Amino acid sequence: MRTGEPLPAVGEVLAALATGLWHWNTATGLVTVDAEAARLLGLPADQATLSQAQVRSRLHPVDWNEISGVIQLAVAEGTLGEVRVRIMDERGRVVRVGRSRFHASFDQRKRSYEVTGSLQEVTEPVPGTSAGRTAVTGDWRRSREAFLLDAGRALAEARSTAEVLRVAAGLSMPGFSPDGLAVFGVTGDRLTIIGHHGHQPGDEGPFTHMALETDYPAAEVVRTGRAVYLSSPEKYKDRYPLTWPLAAHFNRQSWAFLPLTVAGRTMGAWMAAFTYPVAFTPDERSVLTTVARMLAQALSRAEATESARELTDGLQRSMLPQLGPEIPGMSVAARYVPTGGGLQVGGDWYDMIPLPSGRFALVIGDVQGHDVRAAGLMGQLRIALRAYASEGHRPDAVLSRASRFLHGMTFGALDEDPSDLRFATCLYVEVDPTTGLLDIARAGHPDPAIRMTDGTVLARPTAGGLPLGIDPDADYPTTRITLEPGETMLICTDGLIETGGHDLDTGWKRIRTILEEHDGDLEELADALVQAVHGPSSHHTTGPLADRREDDIAVLLLTRQDDGRGRDDTVAVQPAVRRTVMSVAQAEPERVGVARQQLRELLHDWACEDQVDSAVLLLSETLTNVLVHTDADALLLAEVSGEPGHRRMRVEVTDNSDDLPHRRSPGELASSGRGLMLIELLAQAWGVDPRGEGKSIWFELYESEGAVGSGAAELP
């Protein structure tokens, strides 16, 4: 073409390049093709308007199904879509392979897509070569589909967040597998690390509790709900210069950050990092997006399950009392293990009640059922028993009143649900700690057992009556026994005896053997009894151990001591590290005030208020210094670590400017230049660390100056 001649029409250029054009409106179901696109589809080389069915008949069925998914992905990510399609003749044979690139938009009002794209023929790779494992031959597609089926099945079977993360870490994607994974959640206005893989312990520190406004890919994904693909370190550095230093030392080459979205709500982000370059083709993005959707669904299910379990666990804990203060001359230990079925709440309970006479009562019982109804009745019955006992009634009167109370509640519900009749077994023991006298009333419950000083174990038969709630006028006679010094009494629900396929007889023999052979203290004995059913347990056990049980377990042990020793419930509390991360952009100077407030909240219980004021002042100086004297944004990382009273506060402000701060000697009327002077005067340690790009200014204060040596660091 000579200079000055008019440009040819677009259609002529595309035709010369053997490239056709097509347009698809899913609302009308019509596809318009130009002459070249029609020729490539095996139709007469004329512009035509075709139905979806006509176009579909010309494409391989698997490829047609692929197009819909890629269109949705392109719209979701705001990118161009690309697919390879096998074009068939009337006999169903592949006559050519085409590549189409297109732009798609979604009409929210019509709930339809408008798609415009190009179509050109490509050379099909030779089967059996490395180039042959592409979507064209179907080998790569079949591998991908098999992978997604396996991944979906594994994620669907994961029952907890930990299991979901283990499955995600073990996923081996066809053709490209990340070596570093991280799952971010959202708490308030901050990112949290739900779990990670391929990193060292502690690597997650700077990314924990990062503000959502921070210039970090995962934060942007959560804010916008759109995926971020970074195919090289240069692209990461250019797009996120402020937080690039946090990712640089991992030596990764490509990153994909995808939203975890459920029911239109972005609940977090998933990072897949690669040690080798990844181009993130439409096929690869499609796989990553599909995995992210399945991962979000699995995490949502796990979160709902764990929330329900936490709720019911808290309900059960709130219904079961603590054993209260030590009793002179006696020790008490208790265990409760809920059933593994349903919501993990049931009708078993125990209680220890101080009495007006100076004695105390031990109560253990079992409301029929293992559901919320049983747990609710258990809570109400326990409160009623405490009220009757606190009024000073004898054991028989307490159980009589409780039976009448439960009868009134359950029979009142029969008008609504005739099958909802419930009863409860119960054992009530009034204990005199001075004499060791035990007054026992029993309502259909297993008898107590006594372990004597020589290790002999005997069941103590006691008089009893009907379970509570059956007969409002039932009598509950009292049996008195004496607990001698060194003896231990066991009372429990039938779950301890019968679980594991045992009946009352064989189960009791198992329990008696444990009582006879155990020489440890009371807490160890309580653990051994529960261990005999399903293995190691804590004071309150849920999860996989409880899942192997058929019934709830409640156990109470009472020992009369000779030396008056009590229980030691001291628990060592490990200090935690507090941390906050946030960015302050040049265009957001008002966030300096937010940063000051965040630091004050981080130091809310710091021993020295003057040090808090100093830290806030120094933070303000360092942040303002970045905003005033550089063109860069600032990243704040503040943390508090150590034991209360001997803690360390460290504040670090990072920016991308290579200009190092210098000490100046401002005059009396100068409005600036005192930043480093203040840091040197107020901080107990400080410094400036140059980085590959930029620098970091840090300072430290110590809650106890004697805990760590003080002294100012020198500028590099």
Automatic annotation (TrEMBL):
Q: Which InterPro entries match?
A: Bact_Sigma-Reg (IPR052016), GAF (IPR003018), GAF-like_dom_sf (IPR029016), HATPase_C_sf (IPR036890), HATPase_dom (IPR003594), PAS-like_dom_sf (IPR035965), PPM-type-like_dom_sf (IPR036457), PPM-type_phosphatase-like_dom (IPR001932)
What SMART domains does this protein map onto?
A: PP2C_SIG
Record's keyword terms, sorted: Hydrolase
Q: What is this protein called?
A: SpoIIE family protein phosphatase
Under the heading Gene3D superfamilies, the entry gives: 3.30.450.40, Histidine kinase-like ATPase, C-terminal domain, PAS domain, PPM-type phosphatase domain
Stored Pfam families:
GAF_2, HATPase_c_2, SpoIIE
Q: Which organism is it from?
A: Streptomyces lanatus
Chain ranges of the PPM-type phosphatase domain: 327-560
